[in-house]
Every structure is written in structure tokens, then in C-alpha cells.
Amino acid sequence: MKKRICCLALAVSIFLCSCASNPEKEIVTSKNDGSFDANVVQSATENSNPDETQVVSYNETFTSTDGSVKFTLSVDEDIPFSAVPVVKVAPHYLSGDDVQRVGQALFGNAVFYEQGPILGEIFTKDEIQRKLSFITPYINIEKMKELYNAEVWGEESIAMKAEELKLFVEYLTEEYETAPVENPYGLCQWEFKNGAYYFYSEEEIASGGMNLSSYNEEIYSRVQLNGIPYLLTASRRNQDDFKLNNIYVWIDSGSMPSTLELDAFTAQLCSSEPTQDQLMSVKQKAEQMLSSMNLGDWYVDECFVEASPGQLASETYMIHINAVPVINGVPAIRRPQFSNITSSEVYASNYYLTDANFQFSANGDIISFQMYSTIDVKEIVNDNVATLNMDEMMEIAKTHLTLSDRSNYGNTEEQLASWDSFYGETVICEINICKLDYGMTRVKVPNTDNSYYYIPSLILSGTINYCGEQSGTVYQSYPGGIYPLVAINAVDGSIIQLKNE
User: Fold this and answer.
1) Helix (H) or strand (E) run with residue 357 in it
2) 229 in Cβ contact with 252 (< 8 Å)
3) Cβ neighbours of residue 351 closer than 8 Å, sequence gap 6 or more
4) Are 215 and 200 in contact (CB under 8 A)?
5) pTM
6) What is the pLDDT of residues 271-281, one digit of tens each?
7) Containing H/E element for 474?
């Protein structure tokens, strides 16, 4: 079984997206010089066997031109040898039926209710009784210490959490007298509306002064499964600044002043380490859910267990199931999600990468779910495009990497210069290129914000360490992290941008 400790804080902008400031050799094909358009219509001269694979093996060392980065290339991969297409896709704008179908895939026949304005949320009597029953024991500091790791949070912080809950219990007790019996917002109608209506009352919105155009179209719905409260949200946006078609689900208790319910249910549901059989069962469950959602074809490319980082008193284990879109029978290569889709940079994407992520307990209880950027296939531009051979792409990738310097991998030159002085030696970057992926990667169609190509590509990934040049001492490391370093367009040999500036 594979166990992975996620280091989200380390997922910094370390992916190589540009060459050194003044490279002596230019190898990046212009994205708008017509070469891609000319090459994309050229088909491979040989038909490949979809079941055939090829062994790719490269082992060597090289350095950047300025000597500040040392690369060790060590990859031995068995990659598919099937035909690779070029496919044009466009955002699939979610409908209410789409969102309802996702809800049913995740929660079956559970009853979904409309979410009222969050800033003035009204609970029913049954909801208040459930919350009071759940929360009241945690007013006791000792009970809180059973849930939270006192060494991490500190005694004072835990005491403050307990005091906040005590005040919330008093508030709920007062509200119970006038609380409605039936849900005042009714059943979920599965209709998108301006997101402002999920935060403010209609009276507040009608009073004017709000820029409603800045909000996305949203659906917010509450549902309970096995006594656990969840919030399902969907966001849709089709504006010039950026596009959205995202769905999220998580354990949520409404306007409670802390994450108590999420933390308590996580501790309860995820207390046991999954067996291999449970891992495979949950993977199959996720695959069936994705199929039932009917929002494109998906391939589960990651399935691993995350052990808790220690914020809770007892160790927890969460199963992560991640899936990438399948484009004309070929899975996309996993890449880090964009952190900025409002960039004004010419070739930046204004639409998140298509991705689906589940988090489950060992028994298959849903902890959370995310789906980003649903798409529709618009055109198979070429179902067996001619591509560069592997050696050609590797030479382009290596040349590009040699034109980088130590500041391209997560630390500024100013920071690194201060390290040189502090440690009394030059700090260099050592990169072990240990992973090669060949498959489909999304790129922007030139001169449009409404469509994209999925193209065959090569992506090299590896580990990154900052070390003393003389001593070899590792001063900074990204433990367990294998990060994309360079991506090559297999059609025209250009460098694919891996992130938005």
C-alpha cells in the first residue's frame, strides 16, 4: 500500500516555465508562428498497435550553462505506443441537471435542500437539536483535548475553541424557540442563480449598492448522509476575465464558528488505516461515481492514503482518489492545478485544468469531492498526428533545462545569495529527473479564450534540492515531492507553459 504525506505548503511555484534571462541559444518554438497549425494536419505514416508499448531509458548527468543547476537524468519507463490525437475541446457549462446528477452519484436518494443566505442562516428545530447534541460535549476542554492535539494547537487555543462553542450553544438554545419545523428554503431546485443570493437576503440585495456582475452563477445545496451534514456547491461563469465550471462537496455544519464537525467526523470515520482490499474497493466506487455523473470520460491515475499531519489527537487515514480526463481514448497527463486563472499574460489559461478529486474513509464514507472545468469535445483535429521521436523531444527538453538557473526552482536569486553568505559556500540546485510521462496535455488555442487543444506531449518531472556546492549539505529539500520540470509539445517541439504567471 502506498502511503503519502501531503506537503501542500511545499507546492510552490517551482515549475520551470522560462529560460534564463538572456539565453545564448533559443529552442522554444513560437506558439504563434504557424508551425503547429502546419504540423497538426500531418498524420503518422505508420499505424500503431494500441496494446503495444515502448521501453524508454535515459541515464546521464548534465549541468545548466551557468553551472548553478546539476541534473541527474534517470528514467526507465514503459510508455504506450498507440496513436495519439489532437483534439479541440471547449468548456462544458454546467446545467442544473448536471449538478443534480453529481449529487445523486455521490449521495444516492438522499434529500437535498436549498441553502439559504449564509449570513442570516435559519436552522430548523431538528437541525438545532442535532447540533446541540453534537456540540455540547465539546464545551468541556478535556473533551476537546481528546479531539485536538494539544501539542500542536496549545492549551490556550483549545480553550478558546471551547469558549466559542459555548457561546454558539447559547445562541442555538435561544434560536430554538422560534425555529421553524420545516426547512424554510425548501427542496433544492437545481437552478443556478447569482451567487450573491447565497450570502445576502433578497432585501439586502434589493437595497442596491452591490455589483452583482462580479458574482458567479451558483447552486448551493445541503444534504445529510448517515447523520453527516454536507454542502454541495456548483459554480458557473462565462465572462471575459475567466471561466468556471466547478463542483465541490465537503462536510459542513453551516455557520458554526469552527470546523468542529468536520474534525470530529474525520476523526471518527478515518481512524483506521485502509487495507489493500479497501483501497481497491474505494477506487472502484469512485470510478462508478464518475461514470454515473456522465460528465466526460475519466481515468483514475492516483490512489493513495494520506496520514494525518498531527493536528488531531488521534491519527487519521484518508484515501485520495484522483482522476484525469480521457481524450479520444488517451488519458491526460496529471499536472499541478493553476493557482491563477485571471492572468493577463498572453498564453495564460483562464480555465482551470480538468480534474476530479475524491477523499474517502477506509469504509468508503465521502469526506470531500472536487470536480474542475468540465469540457466537451468539439473536434478530432487529427486522430493519429505525426510527432517528434522520443530522442528529439529529450534533446529539446535537456537544452531547455540547461538554459535555466538555480532561481527557476522555487527561490529567488536574492534569497539564494543570502544563503551563500549565511552558509559560507555557494548554494546550487540539484535535480533528479526520475519520471517521464507521454500523453495528452491541454494548451490554449491561439487568439481565443473559449477553446483548447489536447495534444501529445512529453513531461519530465523530478525532485529538487538546494545543496552546498563544496560540502554537499542539503539546505532545502522538498520531501516526497516529484514536480514537473518541462513539457514538450510532441507535434512541433515547442515548450508548453506549466503554470500561469
Assistant:
1) strand 355-360
2) yes
3) 91, 242, 243, 244, 341, 373, 452
4) no
5) 0.87
6) 999 999 999 99
7) strand 474-477
